[in-house]
Amino acid sequence: MEQAGAALPPPGGRIRPALAFRPAPVPPLAARPLEPLLVRSGGRRWRIGDPVFRGLAAGFGLSVVGITLVIALVLFRKSAAARATFGWAFLWTSVWDPVFLRFGALPLVYGTLATSAIGLALAVPFGLGAAICLAELLPQRVADPLTFLIELLVAVPSVVYGLVGIFVLVPAMRALTTPIAATFGWIPLLAGPTYGVGMLTAGVILAVMIVPFIVAVSREVLLAVPQSQRDAALALGATRWETVRQVVLPYARSGIAGSVVLALARALGETMAVTMVIGNRPEIAASLFAPAYTMAAVLANEFTEATSNLYLSALIEVGLVLFGITLVVNALARLLIPPEVGRA
Amino acid sequence: MTAHARRRRRVDRVMFTLASLATALTLGVLLFLLGYLAWQGASSVSLTFFTRLPAPVGESGGGMANALVGSFKLIALAALAGVPVGFLGGVYLAEYGGGSVGWLVRYAADVLNGVPSIVVGITVYALVVVPMGHFSTLAGGIALGLMTIPVTLRTTEEFLRLVPTSLRDGALALGAPRWVTIVRVAIPAGLRGIAAGILLSLARVAGETAPLLFTSFSNRYWSPGVGQPTASLPVMIFTYAISPYDEWHRQAWAAALVLLAVVLGSNLLARAALGRGRPA
């Protein structure tokens, strides 16, 4: 039955292969000089080849495990001085004072989490909306090139986002937030003064950076929902939106959540763009417009200036905390995203 | 049509309009970004940008010839340090990696992929810069090389797996040992995809700034060999962008345009090699 079907041209045009990759044509082996291959294959030289090659490949593969362990170990060992001095209080005290060598990472942890949360809050609605539009609404021949363009945004280096952030976003935010703070400044969240740089600006730039990522992964997840699910809902009289809302999205729920968590992991570790627009002040302020600091930004700014061992050690402990957080978030994403959807 | 049905249709239209607006806004940001960079960059980039050293503060003119060469050297070192590990590790995963060792390697690659780039910089600082006693191109190249490993590894695995079993069976049936089959049949068949994956991973690290800040640092002059600090395009963009000088800002825009052209160009090339815009 299946064979008969395969012989016919597929209804509605050609079937799109799951992967549009065709291996390069390999000249048939017979076209190559075969004697050496056949003659030598029985000889000793070729018999030891297999274990040697396998061992070589395995060695390089395992070196990846080694590298990952080394990173964790270096961060742990080199932060020993700070861990001995400050203990767990490092995580919940909020004085970051290189002059008197007192280090508490709370403002940095808070800045990292808060900017990422703002970034996600802005990016998820837009990213998900765009993914729905590109997967469910537009015909594939329009959606594919548009998706391709959006995916190009993922490749833009973060320092370039930072550059545009400094010279376009920061002045724009200053112009936009100053009247807001003047009117609603009595709300702590919207209190002035407004510098243009600050937590909200960092969140906006993170949002711009992670939207393409959410679009790309979510669209793939949506496209992986079987067409029969949609057909069934439509046949029951559902509108297209009801189909998306009640059938497609629930089906794709875990994959979409995974794309969001993966985007979160990126936002948490993002360094350059945030460093350039956040204002770099290690304080916890209630206002969205106030300057703040993140773990990655403090490393970028202060690492080469660390003059004492304890200072350097405290900075490395910040790196260790950042490493730990991204490790957990990434592991969560792996659990959520179905393995057949492309990784990024 | 009942009021209920009309309402349902209205919700349908509103929601899809919102979704379309979200798409338009995302694309708008992209076009604005590219357009603004092209505009600012094109008015700042000139021949001297490619041929001269940075000018001292206050003097106009000058270029980033040393940063261009520095970035090129860093990427070449990254390829030397990272690609063999990623490539052979990928071969291992595709050809032998079914068991628990394969699982472990895949898991480690995922973790490594998620490590923030600045943390990679710290590690290389502790392992290379501190023992050497100073910043160097070598340290920067190693940091970038580590970052190329996960993508190279997983794309190599992926494209080797796509090589049909029948090709391998043919070689094995002719009496070729397994490793000859892999080296002379499977790898050549998947080479185009593997090369594209390597190109993508190098394009990704070409724009990395954070791991270079305390490995290759920066330099206002030429950096001979690989043993000294070197300028690189991304670090120069960062330094110049946060400086107070207009002339440096213009240089930063020029550098950003050049960097973006290289990165997006490599991406387009890699995707063209894959035949279709497929994320790798």
Outline the structure in words:
The complex is a heterodimer of chains A (344) and B (280). The two termini of chain A are 38 Å apart. Chain A is mainly alpha-helical and 344 residues long. Chain A has a two-stranded antiparallel sheet. Chain A has helices spanning 2-7, 35-41, 44-47, 49-78, 80-86, 106-137, 140-155, 158-184, 199-223, 227-235, 240-269, 272-277, 295-302, 309-336; strands spanning 96-97, 102-103. The model of chain A is unreliable at 1-22 (pLDDT under 50). Chain A folds into two domains: 40-77; 90-336, MetI-like fold (Orthogonal Bundle), CATH 1.10.3720.10. Chain A is globular. The relative contact order of chain A is 0.13. Chain A is built from 14 helices and two strands, in the order H-H-H-H-H-E-E-H-H-H-H-H-H-H-H-H. By secondary structure, chain B is mainly alpha-helical. Chain B has a single domain, classed as Orthogonal Bundle (MetI-like fold), CATH 1.10.3720.10. Helix content of chain B is 75%, strand content 0%. Chain B contains ten helices and no strands. Chain B has helices at residues 3-44, 47-51, 65-96, 100-114, 117-132, 137-161, 165-173, 178-206, 233-241, 246-274. Chain B is flat. Chain B starts with a helix and ends in a 6-residue tail after the last helix. The mean pLDDT of chain B is 91. Chains A and B meet through helix 2, helix 4, helix 6, helix 7 and helix 8 of A and helix 1, helix 3, helix 4, helix 5 and helix 6 of B.
| CATH topology-level fold name of the largest domain in chain A | MetI-like fold
N→C terminal distance of chain B: 48 Å
How many E-type strands of chain A? Answer: 2
Main-sheet strand order of chain A equals 1-2
Sum up the overall morphology of chain A in one term.
globular
Major beta sheet of chain B, specifics?
Answer: none
Give the SSE string of chain B. HHHHHHHHHH
Which percent range fits the helix content of chain B? over 70%
* Distance separating the two termini of chain A: 38 Å
Hey, roughly how much beta strand do the residues of chain A contain? under 5%
Q: Which percent range fits the helix content of chain A? A: 55-70%
Q: Looking at the structure, what is the overall shape of chain B? A: flat
Q: For the record, what is the CATH homologous superfamily label of the largest domain in chain A?
A: MetI-like
The CATH architecture term of the largest domain in chain A is Orthogonal Bundle
N to C succession of SSEs of chain A: HHHHHEEHHHHHHHHH
